[in-house]
Amino acid sequence: MNTEFTNIAGNILDSIKQSKKILLHCHPFPDPDSIGSVLSMEAVLTKMGKEVTCIIGDSQYPEYLTSLPNHDRIQLKNYSEIDPKEFNLFIILDSSSLTQISQKKEVIFPDTLKTIVIDHHKTNSQFGNINFVDSGSSSTSEILFKLFDAWGIEIDRNIAICLLLGIFADTGGFRYPNATPETLHIVSELSAIYPDYHKFVFDLENNKKPIELEMLGLALSNIHEYYSSQVVFSVISNEDLRSRNISKEDSMEGLIGNTLRSVSGWTLVASLVEAEPDIVTVSLRTRDEKRYDVSKIAKSIGENGGGHTGAAGTTIHKPLGEAITSLLGVISEFYPELK
Amino acid sequence: MNTEFTNIAGNILDSIKQSKKILLHCHPFPDPDSIGSVLSMEAVLTKMGKEVTCIIGDSQYPEYLTSLPNHDRIQLKNYSEIDPKEFNLFIILDSSSLTQISQKKEVIFPDTLKTIVIDHHKTNSQFGNINFVDSGSSSTSEILFKLFDAWGIEIDRNIAICLLLGIFADTGGFRYPNATPETLHIVSELSAIYPDYHKFVFDLENNKKPIELEMLGLALSNIHEYYSSQVVFSVISNEDLRSRNISKEDSMEGLIGNTLRSVSGWTLVASLVEAEPDIVTVSLRTRDEKRYDVSKIAKSIGENGGGHTGAAGTTIHKPLGEAITSLLGVISEFYPELK
């Protein structure tokens, strides 16, 4: 525990002690780290005798997280539907900018409202009165564990399962490099408090909709291999979608990049979906991030292209056949050795 | 650490100390727990100055585990290709019966060979001179961690990654209830020794063959929903397979039970593959093990039916259409509430 951490943990606790009515929120399309950090913070603040209001924000409460204890303490309200002047403190969790509070209306804080940002996203714009942004932690849930520990809070079953799910989700089930030894040590402590966490993990990972499987089936039935199968595209035409009455929105459900990447030997893969006539959404993945940067490919082709080295996306405004040719052209230009 | 454990750990160590030449083996179709426990035990015994021989047994060394350190210390030999009389001690890991040593030829131990069985399978037939069967441990790798710890062995990076992968695989990535708080505590200790374990986990989970994705695509393109979508079958006919030149063996590659079960709302799912004309292999899954026992369904229909409450299989010797009708009949007989 370093001095900087001790100081900020103390400052946050002081602000909480000085406040009576505290606001918490979930970010748009809330994931388990958003929900988990809000529900665990709510439990801790309530234990401290505070009046806590949690709002869901822009989205619906996710169906697959309704088995979490006390989830009904999150009110189905947006930031524009509450009066922020009624609160002394707003603890903003897992949100890197104001747009993560709401995108429906401009978010303005009244002068009387103190704001504390607690987040793990490197890109956080530090928009609070106090900002604790720790990108070395896997998740906001992991940061909260460390804070609760420093504050001497007893972590009960309800708090443990919320934090554990938040960490599980943001580390891809302890698969990503952000699952550090410290993360796993925290997970082992949380599992000692909530040993029967497995059912929640099942619910987390098994909440697909039938349309997602239909899209996956369609995508896998249209596989094209290039360059001795080192480059593989799955291709869905707009006609395919229309003949099955799959809407543009639903066509986004079948994110199959990771399924394509799971084949050993398929080095660089992409899913191309002609969601509207002559508009092709492209999702790129590679198994070998050290040699190939798919974000470079995504940026150099199409619109709003970008992402990470191993996973990126873009939109190409061309008929499907031309989009395929363009993409193959860019790939062989950047990485002629694949050809 | 209880007395029973201390005693058996001591007995095993004594046997090792009294032996010079020690044999280790992998079970047929070796998984990461088989390979991981053999490679870690090999490293520990070699550190102790023993002459160790590891044999792969019935199968090939799995391609996706070739990045494991010192994997080439496992010789590509079967039990029938070595002379067991040359060894003082055979430490039999992760194997519940003699058939897990070899199925190619009868396995006979010479009188001069001492045998120690170390395993976590409840069904173990305790066929060694010393048997340490601990079904409370997630994996043989977890048992070995506890033994090495009791023996005061320093766990180095090579040993740590082997044990970690064995535990990861046998707990389904810490998803199954056998991942206890003690398991996770061990994992956190191992990750502190090998923090960059993530690449191995990726290799472990992403070693699919193209034919598996083709089978998955075919299966998902032939979904039939029954009983208000509470019962869902994916159905592949023999004609489907023949028209794509998919062999009987390859038709088994696309294990899609878990993919079907991932849809929330699809309570009881099955994949039916007519691998040969009029021979239908059936794989059953349920999301709700408390209410539905798919092994009961599998046992009451077809040949060699059985399995677990949540996952079971059988073979129905009927044309595909009749097999579907029979299966639906049995399901609605056992569980009329689904209808």
3D architecture notes:
The structure is a homodimer of 339-residue chains. With 339 residues, chain A is of the alpha/beta class. Chain A folds into two domains: 3-205, inorganic pyrophosphatase (n-terminal core) (Alpha-Beta Complex), CATH 3.90.1640; 210-338, Diaminopimelate Epimerase, Chain A, domain 1, CATH 3.10.310.30. Chain A is 36% helix and 19% strand. Chain A contains eleven helices and twelve strands. Chain A has helices spanning 3-17, 32-47, 140-150, 157-170, 181-193, 198-205, 210-220, 238-243, 257-261, 294-300, 320-334, and strands at residues 21-25, 51-55, 74-75, 89-93, 114-119, 130-133, 223-226, 231-236, 268-276, 279-286, 303-307, 311-316. In chain A, strand 11 and strand 12 (311-316) form a beta hairpin. The longest helix of chain A is centred in the first third of the chain and has 16 residues, at 32-47. Chains A and B meet through helix 5, helix 6, helix 7 and helix 9 of A and helix 5, helix 6, helix 7 and helix 9 of B.
Mean pLDDT of chain A: 95
State the separation between the terminal residues of chain A, measured CA to CA: 51 Å
Helical content band of chain A: 25-40%
Low-confidence stretches of chain A: none
| Helical stretch tally of chain A | 11
Which geometry of chain A do the CA atoms define? Answer: elongated
Would you tell me which CATH topology of the largest domain in chain A applies?
Answer: inorganic pyrophosphatase (n-terminal core)
Q: Please tally the β strands of chain A and state the result.
A: 12
Counted up, domains of chain A total 2
- Second-tier CATH architecture of the largest domain in chain A: Alpha-Beta Complex
Beta-strand percent range of chain A: 15-25%
The Rg value of chain A, from CA coordinates, equals 22 Å
Subunit organisation of the chains: homodimer
**Briefly, what CATH class of the largest domain in chain A?**
Alpha Beta
Order of helices and strands of chain A: HEHEEEEEHHHHHEEHHEEHEEH
Name of the CATH superfamily of the largest domain in chain A: inorganic pyrophosphatase (n-terminal core)
Give, in spatial order, the strands making up the sheet with the most strands of chain A. 3-2-1-4-5-6
Largest interface comes to:
A-B, 48 and 48 residues
Q: Biggest β-sheet of chain A, characterized?
A: 6 strands, parallel
